[in-house]
């Protein structure tokens, strides 16, 4: 069973940092495209960062240079290191896995989300 569980959210002051984790099971994260999305209180969902099976990464323009996505293949876990956080980064952050694996089929699964609140 494909599962994704986010953790690491919380309340942080502007300028602070948080490390978000996406712990996965039931599939191989490194064989799929792993993404972080967020949905703010007054915004639509947006894709924040992604890492492909080849290790290539991409970022939303507004977080480039402040956020870093990485992957620990041995732990089947994907991270989002956030820094220089701003109130506009306040959102529920979701982890997504997308791809195809032999024995599983098509994967497009989400975690339950973790709340990040940036406020003084």
Features:
4-stranded antiparallel β-sheet, 11 strands, 0% helix, 120 residues
Question: Describe it for me?
Answer:
With 120 residues, this protein is mainly beta. 0% of the residues lie in helices and 55% in strands. It has no helices and eleven strands. Strands 2, 4, 5, 6, 9, 10 and 11 form a seven-stranded mixed β-sheet that branches. A four-stranded antiparallel β-sheet has the order 1-3-8-7, with no helix packed on it. It is elongated, with a radius of gyration of 14 Å.
Short précis:
With 120 residues, this protein is mostly beta strands. Helices cover 0% and strands 55% of the residues.
Largest sheet: 7 strands, mixed
Round the mean pLDDT to the nearest integer and report it.
96
User: Structural class, please?
Assistant: mainly beta
Shape: elongated
Topology order in helix (H) and strand (E) letters: EEEEEEEEEEE
Distance between the termini: 40 Å
Helix count, per DSSP? 0
Radius of gyration in whole Å, from Cα? 14 Å
Helix fraction?
A: under 10%
Beta-sheet strand percentage?
over 45%
What's the total number of strands?
Answer: 11
Give me the secondary-structure topology.
Blueprint lengths: L2 E5 L2 E3 L5 E8 L7 E7 L6 E6 L5 E3 L7 E6 L4 E6 L8 E11 L3 E6 L3 E5 L2
